[in-house]
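Exercise 3.2. Students should predict the tertiary structure of the chain below and write it as structure tokens, then compare their answer with the key that follows.

Predict this chain's 3D structure.
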Amino acid sequence: MPVTVTRTRRDVVTLTGPETLTYLQGQLSQDVEAMEVGDTALSFVLQPTGKVDTWVRVDRAGTEVVRLDTDPGAGAGLRARLERFKLRTKTEVELAEGVEVLAVRGAEVLDGVPCGWPGTVGSDVFDPDPDALPSDLPVDATELDEAGYTALRIAAGVPAMGAEVDEGTIPAELGQWVVDASVSFAKGCFTGQELVARIDSRGGNVPRHLRGLVLDGPPPAPGAAVEVDGQEVGRVTSAAAGPDGGSLALAFVKRAVEPPAAAVVDGAAVDVRALPLGDAG
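Answer key:
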């Protein structure tokens, strides 16, 4: 994979206090208490119904400090959710919106945290030097804009808050790798556990699945219908121009459409594929 760097942003919620771990152990799907200082992992913050409130990366930053970062625009809702259930728990919740991040893909750098993308080596450097790149970054790294970074995200099959993930999303719809990376079925109870465990015990059987789309034309607009034999089977959630021409997209598609499959979006032929897309496009 070529080495790329993108200047982007994330929202960060930091919890500090002697009861931080105990509190988050019941709020997150990840086993926070099993994490050592310096460890990172993905996690869901779920509604009591088992649907997603927020998808986050967990950084065990200290013995009583945990940082949760998420896509820009999702931090305020995350903070509100954690404040609502905190009651008298001894932990403070602080939000920093739009924190600058240098997203490195194809290589790791010492000052970064693991990106968490499946099958992808990468690091995210928070609050990077605005005028310089990390000294241990390979010299052949290519700088990408947000559109290029979105194409990488789509190819890797990584969902984003506000696009693939909202309050109506069921974790299993996002893909088995997301559930495996974000949920501990060995820990004790956590909010929303019942639905996630029930679906997992049934082999992740849900009405729709996140799929990749590959097409020759320009990127379709989010919300565009995916059709098979004239019938709508899904909707585009994210799209971007591919690195080698054509376009890549993510879409929730009915489970009856097994990839690889042929479909149509806005009158253009598309290939429906399983994720990740790898080097497609």
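Discussion points: The mean pLDDT is 96. The chain has two domains: 4-156, 207-281.
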